[in-house]
Input
Amino acid sequence: MGSEIIKLPSPPDNRVDVLFIAGEHSGDQHAALIAGEIFETHPDWRISALGGPALGNSGVQLLHDLTKDSVVGLVEVIRHYGMFKQLFNGMLDWVETYQPKVIILVDYPGFNLRFADALAKRGLSVKGGGNVVVYQYVSPQIWAWKAKRRFKMAKVLDELGAIFPFELDCYKDTELPVHFVGHPFVREGYENPLNYDPDGPILFLPGSRKQAVSRIFPVMLETFAAYRDSGGKRKCVCLYPEEGILEVLEQALQSTELDSSVIELRPVSEGASASAVLTSSGTMSLNCALAAIPGAIVYRAHPMTAWIGQRLISIEWLGIANLILKKELYPEFLQKDANPRILSDKLKDFLKDPDLRKAHLEGANELFSHLHGADSETVGRRIDQLLAE
Output
């Protein structure tokens, strides 16, 4: 985006009840479900958002498509610093002008928690002496790194909605109200875009961030080429969340000698039935696990980002399902360990080993039990209660 000037539109009738900020595709989809829930209870409310296409299609006023600017890692953030600073300051002014009743920050902690802090310092939020309620949906991974953030969060947030039940214990030594609201992937009305089909193609899910996809997808393509060269007959489907990612995928495909007829690039919205999967460590990997599709996690970050991460992150796995189950349901191949030849051999195992499918079915049932929770509440209900206080 470089030096492009970002202009944020006014809300209809200069009125806004709820503002969402969701900077990633997964958060955009989660936020759209919450917006729908709020509209059911309050059809007359005005909702605006920094988000993406899912929020835009839900009846919400989309101020700016933040998902197109999604980056990961220190190096990438520095590269886009000017754009984020302009957007950040512009949104602060927008909130001060239009005073939404509540701001729902969806995941995206690098931006959102700083924004909550700035709202308090400017005296706009309840915690800063103002009137705007600030609600964070999806806890940052404080159980993995930057655990001390929880004390800062307690000072700038009015409430946190956690999607994993174990996260409640992470905040017990703070004054921040935390409620388990269930995971969106197991809520009523959610349709998993993925299914298992023993006769289906191989599925590739390289992610939703351009920088990461540009490193991960070439590894997947080399793996698929090795699989085909060794006699593999299956075709491949690769899902992408938006047109910007499609451009990255098409550029990578042009650099290979693979026959384009054996690889289909398809929007996530169309879904896929697959026999095996190679996936990045993001949100879609959990969809794979809930669909019980055998596969592996593949991830490559910028070398400097990976070096820093190895020294800051204290978790055994990157994959969400592995973390929840506390075991390696999906083997993880990271950085230099993401070797196409080894991954090709693994793909063959995923396709022919019935014990792996059985393990994934058991894992899917266990995950559903963890994520559903009889004690979970909805975000919409929590927002109503917060505004009533």
